[in-house]
Amino acid sequence: MKRIVFFGLVFLGFQAVFSQIPMEQNMTNLEKKQSSVLEEKLLKKLKEKGNIENIIFEGENKNFYLFPDSEFSKNCFESWTNPEKPRLSIEKLYFIEKTDSSQNTAKVSRVVRSISTMKGAEYYSNRNKKWDELYHDAYLLKSEKDKTRIPDDLEGSADGKILYCVVDDNSFGDCYYKLNYRESGKEVFVGYDNFEPMKFGLITVAKAGNIKINLDIIEEENHFIVYALVQSFYPKISFVENMMIESINARIDAIFKWFLREMGK
User: Among 75, 105, 203, 244, which one has the highest count of C-beta atoms within 10 angstroms of its own C-beta?
Assistant: First the structure.
């Protein structure tokens, strides 16, 4: 009788142990599914399409829905501090598959500070219906007031750095930006804020502080998620609005292609 009870207890013990295995495996699978900064359905769609965009005009009853659940994604929205609401907001998601072990957050941090490598970046000009050079020149400035050219700042972490740059834009000429960086763990954020007016010929298309370009790059197991949010306020003139919509969209894609190119080096 004692043997029966003993073996019964042993059997129940093994049963209890082995019954936990599927549960632990399921928990592991669940954690993997929830490990992305994007919801599962959105991540699946992004992998299939490569990129997704959402365009919101002033006064439209539309919501932002592409932003990742990450530490710095809120910085994208907090960058707009102007009293006027943006006339145009474009949010985009990009998916980048890793191709080698050198592609990590440390490299992302260096790439987004390699401003000089933006020289020669190309974009598709909707106005001219052809590919063209977007930035004829690009470099860091000593400060907002001292526009002396300085080398790229690539040392150490990007976290907390504030830099200044100028890019010679094919359509808007010299565009001056203040760059705000954050970096932590597997995430790098950079926000571009124009500190001088942006002009198209003699027309001011955006006053200082009215163009915000935000990039949030998150490293995951075998890929990167890139979230871009660009917001702008410009004169309520139809041709200016049409030009800004086309120009901003083209420039987001051009900046992404530049980033992709540099990450591949």
Answer: 244
Structure tokens at 116: 């000089």
Q: How many CB atoms lie within 10 A of CB 182?
A: 18
Q: What are 178-203's pLDDT values in tens digits?
A: 999 999 999 999 999 999 999 999 99
The pLDDT value recorded for residue 10 is 39
Q: Which of 174, 170, 172 is nearest to 139 (CA)?
A: 174
Residue 204 tokens, joined: 């001011």
The region, left, alpha or beta by phi > 0 then psi within -120 to 50, assigned to residue 16 is: alpha
Listed residue (119, 112, 116, 123) closest to 135, CA to CA: 119
The C-alpha atoms of residue 248 and residue 211 are separated, in whole angstroms, by 10
* Token pair recorded at residue 244: 């800004």
Nearest to 25 by CA among 33, 36, 37, 15: 33
Evaluate if residue 255 carries a pLDDT over 60: yes
Which letter, b or e, does each residue of 36-53 get, where b requires 16 or more Cβ atoms within 10 Å of its Cβ? Answer: bbbeeebbeebeeeeebe
